[in-house]
């Protein structure tokens, strides 16, 4: 697994959203994108992180950002997650983990002292030209959005 670095081209993809629509990264060229990978919809940490993005979406949008969440969940589960927690940004399904792997967001990780293969909670800031500005791996669900907005200079 290779990790992306600032300056790398963000791997293009087209994934299905919670409503079974195709969403392509390239359709956001000209805008900055916050692309985050999370292990599983409706789990405590992933819910906390998604709700933090939801609660900060206004400030992020004002600064020209688009937020996209990606997990290995099927669209039906993403719909449940979106509706249960009133999530207002696209949730994308990558059941085959191809996009996770392209971003280095799937691989060997340690969880509760055990080494295993799984989703690595990661966030990428992609600039308007499709280049990686920030590549953050092994982020914590709690407090991550606050730290990210601070690093991006968003109050």
General description of the model:
This is thioredoxin-dependent peroxiredoxin. Residues 4-155 form the Thioredoxin domain. It comes from Microbispora catharanthi. Monomer. The chain has helices at residues 44-62, 75-85, 98-102, 144-151; strands at residues 14-17, 22-24, 32-37, 65-71, 91-93, 106-111, 114-119, 122-126, 132-137. It has 155 residues and is of the alpha+beta class. It has one domain: Glutaredoxin (3-Layer(aba) Sandwich), CATH 3.40.30.10. The strands form two sheets. Strands 2-1-5-4-3-8-9 form a seven-stranded mixed sheet, covered by helices on one side. A two-stranded antiparallel sheet has the order 6-7. Strand 1 and strand 2 form a beta hairpin.
Strand content: 25-35%
Strand order of the biggest β-sheet: 2-1-5-4-3-8-9
CATH class category label: Alpha Beta
Low-confidence region ranges: none
* Backbone shape: globular
Oligomer: single chain
Number of domains: 1
- Mean pLDDT comes to 96
Radius of gyration (Å)? 14 Å
Distance between the termini: 34 Å
Q: How would you characterize the largest beta sheet?
A: 7 strands, mixed
Category from helices, strands and their pairing: alpha+beta
The portion of residues assigned to helices is 25-40%
Order of helices and strands: EEEHEHEHEEEEH
Protein topology:
Blueprint lengths: L13 E4 L4 E3 L7 E6 L6 H19 L2 E7 L3 H11 L5 E3 L4 H5 L3 E6 L2 E6 L2 E5 L5 E6 L6 H8 L4
Parallel strand pairs: 3-4, 4-5
Antiparallel strand pairs: 1-2, 1-5, 3-8, 6-7, 8-9
Helix pairs in contact: 1-4
